[in-house]
Structure formats: C-alpha cells, structure tokens
User: Which sequence fits this backbone?
C-alpha cells in the first residue's frame, strides 16, 4: 500500500522535505512508520515514542493501522514563550 507522509517543523528540517509517498506492507501501524523514520534519520534515534500522530487530519493513537491512501503526519512538540 502507499501512504503520504507529511513532515512539519523540525521533522521537515531533518528529512529535508515536506512530504513523500512511501510504500508499506499491509498491516503497518503509524508507530512502525515512526520507527522507520528513526532508523533513517540519526537525529530521531533517541525518540522511541512517536510524537502526536494524525491520520487523514485526525489525531489517533500511534498503534493505528494504516490503509492504502492514508495521509500520515507526526506533529513534533513546539516550544515557545
């Protein structure tokens, strides 16, 4: 299946792009995608738990199973003052 992965804020900087379409096996969960990102980008290696996760613009638990055509976004925490 194919899903569209969106990158925001610091994740965009780390990935070097705003989005991409990735191919995944059926039964893949959002958390599996996060672990894949951690393996690809050293800067994410220390983040075992995924940040807030959205599928098709709705916040979900990271154990949500993905479906073909889903849009997945991990929302990094934002600091401010």
Assistant:
């Amino acid at each position: 299946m194919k899903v569209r992965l969106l990158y925001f804020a610091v994740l965009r900087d780390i990935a070097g792009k705003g989005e991409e379409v990735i191919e995944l096996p059926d039964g893949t969960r959002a958390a599996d995608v996060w672990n894949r990102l951690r393996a690809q980008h050293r800067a994410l290696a220390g983040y075992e738990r995924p940040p807030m996760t959205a599928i098709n613009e709705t916040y979900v638990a990271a154990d949500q199973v993905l479906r073909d055509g889903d849009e997945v976004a991990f929302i990094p925490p934002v600091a401010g003052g």
